[in-house]
Amino acid sequence: MTTTNPLxxxxxxxPGDIDALVDVVRDCCASQTPLYPIGGATALDYGRTPQQPxxxxxxSGLNRVVDYPASDMTITVEPxxxxxxxxxxxxxxxxxxxxxxxxxxxxxxxxxxxxxxxxPRCYGLGTIRDYVIGISAVDGRGTPFKGGGRVVKNVAGYxxxxxxxxxxxxxxxxxxxxxxxxxxxxxxxxxxxxxxxxEMAERILAALxxxxxxxxxxxxxxxxxxxxxxxxxxxxxxxxGRIAVGVSGTATEVDWMIExxxxxxxxxxxxxxxAISDAPADELWSRIVEFPxxxxxxxxxxxxxxxxxxxxxxxxxxxxxxCSVVSHAGSGIILARFAEVPNxxxxxxxxxxxxxxxxxxxxxxxxxxxxxxxxxxxxxxGGRTDATVVMESVRRQFDPQRLLNPGRFFRD
Length: 412
Fold this sequence. Notes:
Layout: E1 9-13, H1 18-31, E2 35-38, E3 54-58, E4 65-67, E5 74-77, H2 83-91, E6 95-96, H3 109-115, H4 122-125, E7 132-138, E8 144-148, H5 160-164, E9 173-180, E10 182-183, E11 187-195, H6 198-208, E12 217-222, E13 228-229, E14 233-234, E15 241-249, H7 251-267, E16 274-277, H8 278-290, E17 298-303, H9 309-319, E18 324-328, E19 333-338, H10 346-360, E20 364-370, H11 377-381, H12 386-398
Parallel strand pairs: 1-3, 2-3
Antiparallel strand pairs: 4-5, 5-9, 6-10, 7-8, 7-9, 11-15, 11-16, 12-15, 12-18, 13-14, 17-19, 17-20, 18-19
């Protein structure tokens, strides 16, 4: 996503510990200076571009592992540790946080929680919201607070973990996280097939609900980005896209699921069925994960009913023939990358076509990134709703002066 910093910063501070961070927030509160928390700077273009000059608060200095009781399958870390560093730490114990994010060598765990972007394995293994069991943060007045704990079954207190997840740093600055973990599976693979049109894609996706297999990911891939894939090869003539199903577990489980899914698809007369594992699977998986981070004029994310995924994908492809799509179809999540959208057509495309289609499917749509000018809050996030009113009320309790990331998530 972001390659340059779009924030209107007068300076950037990088406190080395929590006490120093608290002092920075309190000073900004006293002077009524906007404060912009920064993790790995990989998603700064998510949300509306802020306009008020303020201070950047880099969390790069808060990058320590606080506690790692591997036998408890939990870890407590500071927010500035990158997903790549976290992955390496956990790999020594054959454990993982199964959250797939673009640019993992730069993206920080604090930023991942703040943005709450879902990766492919959300279908079978859940989202980051399901893995945060303890959180500590500092509100807009410089007051530390925390919720949850360091054990999985801790349920005491208000659920700050879920409240702060996805808040884009507008309720508080995260300073510590406790995460539950999973064992790294013995084997993983992708089973792929070709689809000729949206009707065929819908039929295959619907049948997966009753599959004897238990996928961790169900991906619908469409558009130019997938027509000449190094692993999948050229898309056959007449094919509209591909479906890739991710399976993982013991070697015996994965081998059985591959054979079972191939049998099910053969019975449905599905073509182009093949299993991909080892390095080729890792290569393809990486492209799926990195898809929304590629440079493009416009990238959107929509969440709809899984049964309405193919319809919205058709809407996106109809609006721009050069549009490419990765859909975590089992979860109803669509990532669409547009290539040919004139600057003055963005608002019309989002507000008049794509968002109404998502809302009709009981869903929502947000703009993940765009280089086509500073779009309005309406275009980026959608209109004001009853849920927005509640969120604004909550925000006033945590940041009454509206100093944390002003204008990015809320209408300031």
